[in-house]
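Risk register update: the risk of archive-format incompatibility is retired. Evidence:
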Amino acid sequence: METTTSSTGAQLINKDQLLTHWLGHRKVTRRTLEAFPEKELFEFSIGGMRTFAQLMKEMLAMDSATARGLATSTWEALDEEKAELTTKTELLASWDKSTEEIQQFWKDITMEEFQKQIKAFGQYDGTGYSILFYIIDNEIHHRGQGFVYLRALGITPPNFWEQY
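Archived output:
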């Protein structure tokens, strides 16, 4: 079966609906972070996976930087260590700041930028939309790891379908 794609024709969702979708995922991820006890956030892992704090730092390195890159065509190297973030409160504040930055940059992203071939962060080749989908998918994937950690700790994770 051959699949073809086109950038013309009917539009499934518009740019603002896509942002709303992304921000909905971010709200669930924030509630996942809130559910973690401080100590386990930075120390608990299963099977050699990174802690949820480390996963959050990776997401923070990429999320608003992606919106900035799409808006300005400037892609800086990633800082996934984020060594300055050592408490749950700092992670939450950084998450909120990053969400604000996403919303700020979003208005400057053109529809053409989503179709353009780019090299994000010097390592990801693709279209603007494929890079953005990677960032959203990566967040969902890491949030799923967080859900597993919470369940292993006897904590019920937030409902993923409640993206209010």
